[in-house]
Give the backbone structure.
Amino acid sequence: MHGTPGSRLGPRPRTFDLHKLGIRLIAYDRPGYGDSERHEGRSVADAAKDVLAVAEAVGIAGRYSVVGRSGGGPHALACAARTPERVASVAAVVSVAPPVEGFDWLAGMAESNVSTYTLIKDHHPDLSQLGKVLARSAEDIRRNPSSLLTSLNEEMPTADRLVVADAEIRRLLLRNYLSAVGEFTDTSEDPPHPTGWIDDLVAFRKPWGFQPQSIQKDVPVLLWHGEHDVFAPLSHFHWLADNIPGATAVLQPSVAHFSALPALLPILAWVRDRAEPNFQR
């Protein structure tokens, strides 16, 4: 499950490394991204039905594991909560938590995120202002795929800057962002609103459609986070760890949000290992 914004072409381990682990990795564009049509008003929970449909379309009749990074984290947890009979194990990596009463959701978050989410709060259900802001960002990405990382550079902790400076990771991120918003076409019309990006952000800030507390203990869940994350603050990790029964919570010192990218291979190995008892049922 890709991040926000993102696409099925998001960063992933090399095919050779996946083969050594015995993992078949399947990714798809969430509604409104890449080649997927919009599902206006979708909730986080709707992802569970989409994942099930994708699994069945590619011939998976039994159980499967789900890994979600960043904005994909809540959607991965939705699969554990809504389709536990099909999900063998789950990892939510640098994920945000749901917007529940008494939890300061924006505390510790980068200012760029705070300003974007404030637009939702101040104007909902009218999303035109949010659409205009993200349309400009999407147009910048189409013209120059590195523009998003450049705009975030000042907010990034040093650990994140070091990760995105890696040439291969940066190449995969830029391909991911461009696939999410589409190719640039020179036109006099206003740029189209990036509906997948908009709908992700709105879905995170409204009820998710499931309670993380409802995830059954027999579905192994890994929560992986970096202690210096400013895009999904540490308080979100602690909330999820406190509210998902039996979750394995791994907090990595001295790393941040984008550090999840080089960690994907051992995370995939974790869900594979925890899935094996479920595959034998």
About this structure: Strands lie at 64-69, 87-93, 221-226, 248-252. The mean pLDDT is 94. The chain has eleven helices and four strands. The first helix runs from residue 15 to 21.
